[in-house]
Amino acid sequence: MAERISLLEAVEKKEALLEPGVYFMQGNIASVEAALIAGCRFYAGYPITPSNEIAEHMSRRLPQVGGVFIQFEDEIASIMALIGAAYGGVKSMTATSGPGFSLMQEGIGCAFMIEAPIVIVDVQRGGPSTGLPTLVGQGDIMQAKWGSHGDYEIVAYLPSSVQEMFDLTIEAFNAAWEYRVPVIVLTDQRVGQMIEKIEVPPYEEIKIVVRRKPEVPPEEYLPFDSRYLVPPMAAAGEGYRFHVTCLTHDDRGYPTTSHNISRKLVSRLVAKIRENEKVIGRYESYLADDAELIIIAYGITSRAARRAVKEARREGLKVGLFRPITAWPFPYWGLKEHVDRGAELLVVEINMGQIVRVIREYYNNITKIHFMPWAPGEVPRPSDILLKIKEVYPR
Amino acid sequence: MSSLRVTTIRSEEVKKLLRLERFPHIWCPGCGIGTVVKCYAEAVLKSGIPEEKHVVISGIGCAARAPGYLKLDGLHVLHGRPIPVAVGLKSVKPDLEVTVISGDGDILTIGGNHFIHAIRRNDDINVILINNFIYGMTGGQYGATTPLGAITTTSPYGFIEGSFNVPYLAAALGANFVARWTPLHTKELVDAILKMFKVDGFAIVEIVSPCLIYGEMNNLPPLEMLKLLKERVVIDHEADLSKIDIDLRDPKKPIVVGNFVNRVKPSYQTRYMEIIKKARGGK
């Protein structure tokens, strides 16, 4: 057998990685280049529009850095293969869109339960079902949060530009390996397939999280050591002889039906994210400080909303923008000061009402929450949003 | 039919590979899975590959509990999905010897798609498929290897679908190594598993195994099943695989076992080394 090029060697030398500088690049491609810089060395996926550029680019780029690409028979195999690679200690990623994301849901639950760090890029298209394969949608927000069964927490980023496809893919790997969880880059067809300027910063400015390895001898190692919020992770073949399972398990990774252990396990698993929601959760505000109406929009929609805000300001309306950068955990705290001083809210998203439900959960009966649903297939134009602003603007 | 054999690995040595703190195990009296686990453990000890380089992966079901009793790196994952997990791990850690131990429902029924494509790709993994003809853990529903006419909790009037002939299927798909044995053939099974470890590519052994749940519904309790196997097993390494489907009802039909296929064809993982070389400009 030929000798495999050391993965570590390629990472250390940053060999064949995209060099720091300014590029004109597609969002999906930027996500691949970011993943490679983050240390991703395994990709498993199944073709689906509009995410295909990611698989195609990965198939070309991964072997150049000593990584492995496999196009699997379906999305179920793909997500499970990521778990296998993660337990080999290797950073792994897949990309998909709505229908494939649905097929991955059981595996996402498995990754959460077995604490396997993996990254999934969901390039959202129009739904429901096969829907509009080539056109934009933002209908997977709730699927990302609730798509798998049982109690779990997810981290999902909402890039709104090619630059953020790059930056947030790296952050997604960092969050996955920091908390040993599956992480979603929840982008959309427009952001994924648009081409615009990005800047790759010097490598020393890019923070990269690596696996926290066990520091105890194998006989003392517990794969789910509950003395830690996030237990150190052994990789297969390192001599720790771990057993891990998607069944409810104790610290040793052995199945149990004990209610007490179930309580402790599920509490710790969700606490990994809940206790760190303000560390992980992110948002950006634009002209929000004095706004009487704040638009809440994310992904591609936030760019139309930003333009609408500018135009409304030009017409003397005090309108601002709140852009969640993470869908989950949702950065609800970033709205509080504005709501407290009486600002009303207008949610604009390319679905029939998903993030608006989260806004209602936190701010119903505290301020007025307006909603502009938008069917998948097109991004609302700034003029569409401006019309809605004028309709609901508080007087 | 071979008689009982004395193996060279002592039980005490095998015990060191078991998570004894988890005993008693969950398997019914008369079940064949325990014997297969012992054979696998013996093969690991004899393999010459360091124990920490062996990884065992399973999905859901009775047989899938095997990794939980083995003191090796082990992953017990979703129903039907051990093969892709094994492929992912083997692809990034080619120095590991990755073996899937699971049942017919897990590997062939819900996981059938992964089974056929892993063989087509020729992924470098070993699959120990324990075929007990039924979903034992969930109470006795039929699956893709249930024999025609069998009574199960979901075929109370008799099973009419038809079943996979596992070696024929695996060989047709191009598997590098294909074998079938029973829990009565411990030496042959250990040898087959040792051969599988040496194969670069997909290797599978089917173990025709007695099941208390199946036996209760089909007048074939484990001891009777073992007697049936003893009477009807024929070892034929050169068998025409198209004719070795299992019919438990027909007393004249032999149950053919053997090491049927052992061919050399580079695995996906080996071929991918060439891809890496090509992508790096021959470096």
Topology:
The complex is a heterodimer of chains A (395) and B (283).
Chain A lengths: L6 H7 L7 E6 H12 L1 E6 L6 H10 L6 E4 L3 H12 L4 E6 L1 H6 L1 H10 L3 E9 L5 E5 L4 H6 L8 E3 L4 H18 L2 E7 H5 L1 E6 L42 E3 L13 H16 L2 H4 L2 E4 L6 E4 L2 H16 L4 E6 L1 E3 L7 H5 L3 E6 L5 H9 L5 E5 L8 H11 L3
Chain B lengths: L10 H5 L17 H14 L7 E5 L14 E4 L5 H11 L4 E7 H7 L1 H10 L4 E6 L34 H8 L3 E5 L4 H13 L4 E6 L3 H6 L4 H11 E3 L19 E8 L5 H12 L4
Parallel strand pairs in B: 1-2, 1-3, 3-4, 4-6, 5-6, 7-8
Antiparallel strand pairs in B: 5-8
Helix pairs in contact in B: 2-7, 4-5
Written description of the protein model:
The complex is a heterodimer of chains A (395) and B (283). Chain A is α/β, with parallel strands linked by helices. Chain A folds into two domains: 3-210, 3-Layer(aba) Sandwich (Rossmann fold), CATH 3.40.50; 283-392, Rossmann fold. Helices cover 37% and strands 21% of the residues of chain A. Chain A contains 15 helices and 16 strands. In chain A, the strands form three sheets. In chain A, strands 2, 3, 4, 5, 6, 7, 8 and 14 form an eight-stranded mixed beta sheet that branches. In chain A, strand 15 (344-349), helix 14 and strand 16 (369-373) form a beta-alpha-beta unit. The model of chain A is unreliable at 1-8 (pLDDT under 50). Chain B has a single domain (11-279), classed as 3-Layer(aba) Sandwich (Rossmann fold), CATH 3.40.50.970. Chain B has helices at residues 11-15, 33-46, 82-92, 104-110, 112-121, 166-173, 186-198, 212-217, 222-232, 268-279; strands at residues 54-58, 73-76, 97-103, 126-131, 177-181, 203-208, 233-235, 255-262. In chain B, helix 2 (33-46) packs across helix 7 (186-198) and helix 4 (104-110) packs across helix 5. Chain B is globular and about 65 Å long. The model of chain B has no long low-confidence stretch (mean pLDDT 95). At the A-B interface, strand 2, helix 4, helix 6 and strand 10 of A face strand 2, helix 3, helix 5 and helix 10 of B.
